[in-house]
Amino acid sequence: MNTSKLEVCVAVLQVLNKEGQLSAKEIASKTKINPRTLEESISILAEQDVLKKQDDSGLPVYGITEGGIKVLEYFNLEEIIKCRRI
Questions:
Q1: Domain 5-85 class?
Q2: pLDDT of 61-77, one tens digit each?
């Protein structure tokens, strides 16, 4: 089954929200997302200001922004609404 770009982006935000700052390798490991797909998703998320890259220590790490948390809140709300319709 193919995973949509949206599903990948949400999965990245979820793991960052739960785990805190992580490297791309750690994100890929925890989400089981192909590193090439992950790279594209990280770029999309950074462009939308829902993910922030920090490379103070030489190894880039990524963290969720306030905007990213709002995106997750939106999708959780939508999931609740969807469940109530069934």
A1: mainly alpha
A2: 999 999 999 999 888 75
